[in-house]
Amino acid sequence: MTLEEKLKILADSAKYDASCSSSGSTRKNTGCIGNAAINGICHSFASDGRCISLLKILMTNACIYDCKYCINRRSNNVPRAIFTPEEICEITINFYKRNYIEGLFLSSAIIKSPDYTMERLIETIYLLRYKYKFNGYIHAKAIPGASPYLIKKLGSLVDRLSTNIELPTDTSLKMLAPDKKTKDINNSMITIRNNISKTFAPAGSSTQMIIGATKDSDKDILEKSANMYKYFHLKRVFFSAYIPVNQDKMLPSISIPPLKRENRLYQADWLLRFYKFSVDELFDNNNNFNYLVDPKTDWALRHLEEFPKEINKVSFNELIRIPGIGITSAKKIVSARKVFKIEFKDLKNMGVSLKRAKYFITCNNKYFNNLSYLNKEFITINLLNDNIKERQLSLFD
Amino acid sequence: MNYIILYDGSFNNLLITIKYLFTNNIKPINIVKEDNFKGSLTEYPFKPEISEFDKLNILDKNIFKIIYYVYLSNNINKELVIYFFLLNYYVYKSDILKHRNLKCVNMALAISHKVSREAHLLKGFTRFKLINNEYLYAKIKPDNDILELLSMHFAKRLKNEYWIIEDEGRKIVSIYNKDKFFIIDRCDIKLNLDNTDNVWEDLWIVFFKTIGIKSRENKRCQMSFMPKKYWQNMIEMESEL
Ligand code: SF4
Q1: Where are the domains of chain A?
Q2: Are A159 and A103 in contact (CB under 8 A)?
């Protein structure tokens, strides 16, 4: 099999993993090739609009497990391949030199056993670091069920070490990934959490959850994700809209991945991590998100009694709860209002988007229009219209 | 008098010129690089004799960075923006950035943000070829003059490689000798650019085409993150042009 054929198979089987950003590490180039940038760098964007930062591949796709949702499962009749450690190193170095990538994302299907698979991953990354002297970003996946000493070894070689939770609940995991054990996944995350340091996965750990393959609600998913941030000290939880690649009676019969849902979950995840929202606040009686408006706007529309808020007065924490005002905008506002009274036109000039915010604020005690417009139906309809208009305009780009 | 102030195009000279204007209380209607000045019937070109003037003292690193980035931009009024920004800087000192009701502050911040954004994008989008198994070569065509910023990045990342980056539009190249980089005019150097690098380029294109998920295809999103103007120098996008 040629290198090209292998790359095709092993990139194809890795592409469903969403957790491949390259942020969080500041590795200096110490006499070899490569360094890492704290904010991550996108090197290209694939046809699906996702950032390509790392060479995302599996070491092999020849899996002994049979997870229902996975293209690589044992029972599928697909071409199988395995990279040698040298091949992975050669591609990484040559892609890196030409500035195609920021580093390597290496995961693997399970061959023989979790420990055996981990040993092969370690061998590869060891070679890349010490023989090929690669000092760029590496994100590796720990194989659940592997011995802690192997997890520790791998962690000391990479920037980020992660374990995929795969599904939001134990029941879902049992149903769709019968060979995987929640206990193994948790133990792997605990070992990683307990060892993270400057010399062990300095960019921390992340995980990924498949969305829409099971009946779990958005609230179940967010609660799970909030708990994982707390207990496993994760840097990121990635959500990956379920993409039907297999036929199975256990799997939902959908043909289009639930991308809107994935998007809402990311927005909500952001609100939990940086905007001090709690999971409960984001839902009313319904445990799933409103598809029409984003979770922050949805929350605000359910609490209109708290609005409008005066931009020149309210605290930073209140500012960031206003729909359309992010952390950066809130910082600008807080700093500017120390030296002058902010009017609507000033917000515009300093680059604060008013599309959503204008319904929820006053500037120097003035509302953008008649205050009777501060009602749920009016705002929802207007925001939806704006979206349609934007989409139509972009057709002419 | 309607003065158009001329300067030699360098950042240093711009700062010295602006200091001269402040000291002599001259209010320019524009400040332009002398090579770009086309002559005018209503305005008087004036190039101050400034050798005896020191550079402006800008102690705040952040402020310095902002005006330097504005200087690197392709904005046609960048010199005036810097002039007004600095004029206010001497009034408000480091509080200047809070004064987002001043046009020059918003403009300076927006322009410098654009420059830094483009430099960041090209840290990712720059594509090298290995020439003669000897040195890496990349061609870029940025809107702003970011070759120096980009070179600082690659001098760290690829510090043990010889590399050359050419800014096609400005006709300048940055040459790195495993120690320092130098920026010179393109016409001062002869390059043999026979590309011997197809194997890895082909593999990269295979990877690029494979990694996108068909059922999630979103070319609009792809284009908004990776503007079309950069595609001409990105090997994986050439077939899309
Ligand atoms: S362990 Fe499951 S999810 Fe992972 S490659 Fe094997 S079948 Fe796919």
Answers
A1: 3-282, 295-394
A2: yes
Residues lining ligand 1, judged by CB closer than 6 Å? A 63, 65, 67, 70, 72-73, 109-110, 177
Which atom of ligand 1 is least distant from the CA of A61? 5
What sign does the CA torsion over B150, A139, A93, A83 have?
negative
Rounded Cα distance, A177 and A73, in Å: 10
In the numeric block, the tokens 């003035």 are attached to A366
What is the end-to-end Cα distance of chain B in Å, rounded? 51
Nearest to B230 by CA among B115, B126, B75, B74: B126
pLDDT (tens digit per residue) in B122-139: 999 999 999 988 899 999
Q: Please, are residues B140 and B148 in contact by the beta-carbon 8 Å criterion?
A: no
Q: Rounded to a whole number, what is the distance in angstroms from the first to the last CA of chain A?
A: 43
Give nearest CA residue, ligand 1 atom 2. Answer: A67
- For residue B193, is pLDDT > 90? no
Contact A277, A271 (CB under 8 A): yes
Residue B59 scores a pLDDT above 80: no
Q: Could you tell me the CATH superfamily of domain A3-282?
A: Aldolase class I (3.20.20.70)
* CA distance linking residue A271 with residue B113, whole number of Å: 25
Separation of A71 CA from ligand 1 center, angstroms?
Answer: 8
Rounded alpha-carbon distances, angstroms, from residue A328 to A307, A324, A333, A334, B126 = 21, 11, 9, 10, 28
CB A166 within 8 A of CB A122: no
Q: Please, how many CA atoms are within 13 Å of residue B99, restricted to the half-sphere of its CB?
A: 19
Nearest CA to ligand 1 atom 7: A73
Mutating which of B104, B116, B157 best tests the A interface, going by the most A Cβ atoms within 10 A? Answer: B157
B136 to chain A nearest CA, in Å?
Answer: 7
Cα angle A108, A25, A82; round to 5: 15
pTM (whole model) above 0.90: yes
* A292-333 tens-digit pLDDT: 899 999 999 999 999 999 999 999 999 999 999 999 999 999
Mean pLDDT, range B168-174, rounded to an integer? 97
The alpha-carbon gap from A29 to the nearest alpha carbon of chain B, in Å, equals 6
Tell me the residues of chain A between 5 and 44 that have a Cβ less than 8 Å away from chain B.
Answer: 7-8, 11-12, 15-16, 28-29, 31-35, 37, 41-44
- pLDDT of A397 reads 46
